[in-house]
Specification:
Layout (H helix, E strand, L loop, with lengths): L2 H27 L13 H24 L3 E3 L4 E4 L7 H10 L4 E3 H9 L2 H12 L6 H31 L5 H26 L8 H8 L6 H8 L6 H8 L1
Antiparallel strand pairs: 1-2, 2-3
């Protein structure tokens, strides 16, 4: 029965990983402030909840392009047409492009995504209980990594245990290791579904508000569904 201690270790590692991911997911879904579902979302708020800071950046770039304040070329360059006026986020775009008035879009997007105006937008949404905090997203991601590690450790320990026992006993060993392996595997699949889609930016309340938005307006469609809804020229411009 030399494989029994290996089985206990596998159960412990897989269990700890699944519990950590579960607790992180619950904490991320818990509002950091009173849920505010009464006020309708602005298009920028919808963009953040659906795709985070980079989606807000893409929305602002396309909005400025369509208002003829910015030219987005399919070659991936942004050129300033009108540098006057604008709000904080548009000024962040102009500052990211620089005094030369022209810059590659891939260089502009991360700078704008890190701008103070985007950070304040995110803090407001978190405070209203509509968005998941950065700490919450980090915890969920760490939980998924713990589950992945538990799955791999269980797989390795199960393989070692199967090699240590006689051939006649291997079916018993495989059956014993199947539960922690399947459990951590299912938890990993669920965790990855929680981390990577846009739902990790929006809390449950935020998700409900997103689901209620009309997709007929082009900018709202961009905010909620991403650059895939744009014409090919603008998609090429954003991809750079």
């Amino acid at each position: 029965m030399i494989w029994v201690p290996l089985l206990l270790v596998a159960y412990a590692v897989a269990g700890v990983g699944c519990v950590r991911a579960w607790r992180a997911s619950l904490a991320a879904d818990r509002p950091h402030g009173p849920p505010d579902g009464a006020r309708e979302l602005t298009v920028r708020e919808a963009a953040y909840l659906a795709g985070g800071p980079l989606r807000v950046t893409d929305l602002t770039l396309v909005s400025m392009h369509r208002s003829r304040r910015l030219l987005l070329a399919r070659t991936g360059w942004a050129t300033v047409v009108d540098a006057t006026g604008g709000d904080e986020l548009e000024r962040a775009v102009l500052a990211a492009i620089g005094p030369g008035g022209q810059s590659p879009v891939p260089a502009v997007r991360p700078v704008v995504a890190d701008a103070e105006s985007v950070r304040l937008l995110a803090e407001d949404l978190v405070g209203r209980g509509l968005a998941v905090s950065e700490e919450g997203r980090r915890e969920v991601a760490a939980g998924v990594r713990a589950v992945r590690a538990g799955f791999l450790v269980t797989l390795v320990l199960g393989t070692v245990a199967a090699l240590l026992v006689p051939t006649a006993d291997r079916s018993l060993v495989v059956a014993a290791f199947a539960l922690p392996l399947v459990g951590s595997g299912l938890c990993l699949l669920i965790g990855r579904a929680e981390v990577y889609p846009h739902t990790r930016w929006a809390s449950p309340t935020g998700q409900r508000l997103l689901a209620g938005l009309s997709r007929t307006d082009p900018l709202t469609a961009l905010a909620t569904r991403g650059p895939a809804v744009l014409e090919p020229e603008l998609r090429a411009a954003l991809r750079g």
